Amino acid sequence: YQELYNLYQSKPSGVSFPRGESLMDTVSRVKDFLKKLDLNKNTVVVSHDLTLRLIIAQINGHNFDNIWEIPMESVALTDFETTGNQLQPLKTNDAKHLNGLRADITKHAL
User: Fold this and answer.
1) Residue 98: what pLDDT?
2) How many Å apart are CA 74 and CA 15, to the nearest integer?
3) What is the pLDDT of residues 5-64, one digit of tens each?
4) In sequence order, what DSSP letters do the residues of 23-44 get, joined into one string?
5) Cα–Cα distance for residue pair 39/62, rounded to 1 Å
6) Are 65 and 13 in contact (CB under 8 A)?
7) What angle do CA 20, 46, 89 make, to 5 degrees?
8) Phi and psi (nearest 5°) for 37?
9) Cα–Cα dist 110/102, whole Å
């Protein structure tokens, strides 16, 4: 699957994994989740970095093919604030609590 992985790194919106979902399927699922989320309550959402990248890309109007340019380390914190019915990122990729401990994010599993 090396060719598929390489495409996922360069143009993820064009990839559909065998017996899995495409990135755009994931985008649809994340959008549906956000529509159902009650933004009027204090809420904690724990998620994978891909989901957070997609949310940030959507909020900032970025192309989903550029999601790997959004810094996102393992176990980093991302905080959002709600303004009306909209999410706004307050801080992203905050890893201060890790005290310098870092993962090699180039070796993440898909």
Assistant:
1) 87
2) 23
3) 899 999 999 999 889 889 999 999 999 998 888 777 778 888 888 999 999 999 889 999
4) HHHHHHHHHHHHHHS-TTS---
5) 22
6) yes
7) 105
8) -70, 130
9) 18
